[in-house]
Write a structure and sequence with these properties.
Oligomer: single chain
Helix content: under 10%
Structural class: mainly beta
Order of helices and strands: EEEEHEHEEEEEEEHEHEEEEEHEHEE
Shape: globular
Number of strands: 21
Strand content: 25-35%
CATH topology of the largest domain: Chitinase A, domain 3
Length: about 375
C-alpha cells in the first residue's frame, strides 16, 4: 500500500452497488486480485497491511501503513467483520470492507476513544500461518438442550446445584491450542454467584454436579461470540449455598437525579454514607468492594451482596465508570453511581447477556492497596 492510500476512499460513506454483501451484512470489494486459492481459517494467524476510516466523517483512525510495518494477529481475536472478511481473501489480495457497527465496535459513542458506527478498511493479506485444529466435543459427551456438550470427570458429593441456590465455583477457558485464556484461579480465587444470574453454559452443567464435582464443558462458540465450533472450559463446583435476599431497588434508578454530582466525563454520583476518610485509590490500586448493579428498568444484573462476599480487582481493569468513580472514594464510603453507556458496556443489545445503556451501581469501598 502506498502512503497516498491513507486518504479516505470516495465510497467511504456507503458500500457501492457492486459490492459483495454476506448474510451478516459485511460488504466488500476486491481492489487487487491475489494469487493461489488457499484462504485463512478462523484460527489462523494473518499478516496484513491495512487502513481504517469512519464512514460517518471519513476520518482515519488506524493504519499499519502509517506506522510503516504490517500487523499480525490470530484471526479469531479481532472484530467479527475482520474474522469473517479475511477468510474471503487469498495471499496478495487487497480488499475494501464496509463493516457495520454490529460487526465492529458498536455504535458511535460521544467521548469514546474507539471508533463507532460503520467502519471502512482497506486490507492487503500478505501471508498467513495455519492455527491449531478446532476444538471438537468428545464422541461420548452428553449434551444439554441448548447444545452444550459436557463430560463429568468427578460427580462430587453433597448438595446438588439448583436454580434457587448460590454456587461457588472455579472455571478455566482454553484456547484451541490448549492454553488457558481466562480462569477464576487468575482472578483471585473461586467465584460465587446466584445460579439464576449465571449464563447457561455454567448453570446447565452445574445442575449435573454435586459439591466437589468437576466437568469439562464444550460450549458452542456462538454462545460466547466466538467463531470456534466449540470452546473448552473446565468447571469445578466447590460449594452450594442458600441465596441472600437482594438489596432494594433504588428509588432513583430510572434516571440521574437533579442533586447528583457530575464529572466532565458524564459520570454522576451521590454519597450515600461516609467512611473513615483519608486516602483514595488510584487507577493502579487493587480495590475490595461490596456492590449491586441495576439497569434503569430496576432489574438487578449483579451483586456481591447476594453472593455473600466482597469482590477484589485491579481498578484499572474494569469499566471506565468504575475506574473513575472509585477514585473519588475513601475507605468505608458508599456511593451511588449513574454510569452512562459510553463509560460502561455500551448500548443495550438484546440477547447479548450483558447489561447495557445507563447503569446504576451502589458501591462500598471496603479496602484498597
Amino acid at each position: 500500500m502506498a502512503q497516498d492510500e491513507l486518504k479516505a476512499p470516495a465510497d467511504v460513506a456507503a458500500a457501492p452497488a457492486d459490492a459483495l454483501v454476506t448474510e451478516s451484512g459485511l460488504a466488500s470489494k476486491v481492489l487487487t486480485a491475489g494469487t493461489g486459492t488457499d484462504k485463512p481459517g478462523a484460527t489462523d494467524t494473518v499478516t496484513v497491511h491495512y487502513t481504517g476510516w469512519k464512514s460517518s466523517d471519513g476520518s482515519m483512525f488506524d493504519s499499519s501503513v502509517k506506522r510503516g510495518e504490517p500487523a499480525s494477529f490470530p484471526l479469531n481475536q479481532v472484530i467479527k467483520g475482520w474474522t469473517e472478511g479475511l477468510q474471503l481473501m487469498v495471499v496478495g489480495e487487497k480488499r475494501r470492507f464496509w463493516i457495520p457497527a454490529e460487526l465492529a465496535y458498536g455504535p458511535e459513542v460521544p467521548g469514546s476513544p474507539r471508533p463507532g458506527g460503520q467502519l471502512v478498511f482497506d486490507v492487503e493479506l500478505l501471508s498467513f500461518e495455519k492455527g491449531p485444529e478446532p476444538v471438537k466435543a468428545p464422541a461420548d459427551a452428553q449434551k444439554t438442550e441448548s447444545g452444550i456438550a459436557y463430560v463429568i470427570t468427578e460427580a462430587g458429593e453433597g448438595e446438588s446445584a439448583a436454580a434457587d441456590k448460590n454456587v461457588q465455583f472455579h472455571f478455566t477457558f482454553f484456547a484451541p491450542n490448549g492454553q488457558p485464556v481466562q480462569s477464576s484461579k487468575q482472578m483471585g480465587g473461586p467465584q460465587t454467584a446466584p445460579m439464576d444470574k449465571l449464563p447457561p453454559f455454567f448453570t446447565e452443567v452445574f445442575t449435573q454436579l454435586k459439591e466437589g464435582g468437576k466437568a469439562e464443558a464444550y460450549i458452542p462458540g456462538a454462545m460466547l461470540g466466538a467463531p470456534d465450533e466449540f470452546v473448552r472450559c473446565e468447571l469445578e463446583l466447590i460449594d452450594v449455598k442458600e441465596p441472600i435476599p437482594a438489596p432494594p431497588v433504588p428509588e432513583d434508578v430510572a434516571a440521574v437525579p437533579a442533586d447528583a454530582e457530575k464529572t466532565e466525563s458524564g459520570l454522576a454520583y451521590k454519597v450515600l454514607s461516609k467512611g473513615e476518610g483519608g486516602d483514595k485509590p488510584t487507577a493502579a490500586s487493587n480495590v475490595t468492594v461490596h456492590y449491586s448493579g441495576w439497569e434503569t428498568n430496576g432489574e438487578m444484573f449483579d451483586s456481591s451482596i447476594t453472593r455473600g462476599e466482597t469482590t477484589s480487582f485491579p481498578l484499572g481493569g474494569v469499566i471506565a465508570g468504575w475506574t473513575e468513580g472509585l477514585q473519588l472514594m475513601s475507605k468505608g464510603d458508599k456511593f451511588r453511581f449513574w454510569i452512562p453507556e459510553g463509560l460502561a458496556y455500551g448500548p443495550k443489545q438484546e440477547g447479548s447477556g450483558r447489561p447495557g445503556g445507563l447503569l446504576v451501581f451502589d458501591v462500598e469501598l471496603v479496602d484498597f492497596k
